């Protein structure tokens, strides 16, 4: 079974690294990080992502612009926000979002 690719966007390096480590730890998800919107668009266009996780530093206007680009490339991509709260909440948010696509 192929891993589910998740793009994580956050401008705080330590938080981005932590989220990616937690995602990769599952063994079924593959986290790829981007620290700004330009990088996020470039990375998104380079691979197929099932989910985009918007984190620290992504304001509402940037989110709107990114979603417009992401949906034009992959209309089925799921985008969610993560505001923190620990690994259990992170896993739950991702699981719930992915369950909506099935």
Which geometry do the CA atoms define? globular
Output the helix-strand order. EHEHEHEH
Biggest sheet overview:
4 strands, parallel
Number of strands: 4
Please give the radius of gyration in angstroms.
12 Å
Classify the helix fraction into a percent range. Answer: 40-55%
Report the end-to-end length measured between terminal Cα atoms.
Answer: 16 Å
Number of helices: 4
Q: Output mean pLDDT.
A: 92
The share of residues in extended strands comes to 15-25%
Residue stretches low in confidence (pLDDT < 50, at least 5 long) are: none
Identify the strand order in the major beta sheet: 2-1-3-4
Structural class estimated from helices and strands: alpha/beta
General description of the model:
It is a single chain. The protein is α/β, with parallel strands linked by helices. The chain has a domain of 70 residues. It is built from 4 helices and 4 strands. It has a 4-stranded parallel β-sheet with strand order 2-1-3-4. α1 links the parallel β1 and β2. α2 runs parallel beside α3.
Strands, helices and their partners?
Blueprint (H helix, E strand, L loop, with lengths): L3 E6 L3 H13 L3 E6 L2 H10 L4 E4 L5 H14 L4 E4 L5 H13 L3
Parallel strand pairs: 1-2, 1-3, 3-4
């Amino acid at each position: 079974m192929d891993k589910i690719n998740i793009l994580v966007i956050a401008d705080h390096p330590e938080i981005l690294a932590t989220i990616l480590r937690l995602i990769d730890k599952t063994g079924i998800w593959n986290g790829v990080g981007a620290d700004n919107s330009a990088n996020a668009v470039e990375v998104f266009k380079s691979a197929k992502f099932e989910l985009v996780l918007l984190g620290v530093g992504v304001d509402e206007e940037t989110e709107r612009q990114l979603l417009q680009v992401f949906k034009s490339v992959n209309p089925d991509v799921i985008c969610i926000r993560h505001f923190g709260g620990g690994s259990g909440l992170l896993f739950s948010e991702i699981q719930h979002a992915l369950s909506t696509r099935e």
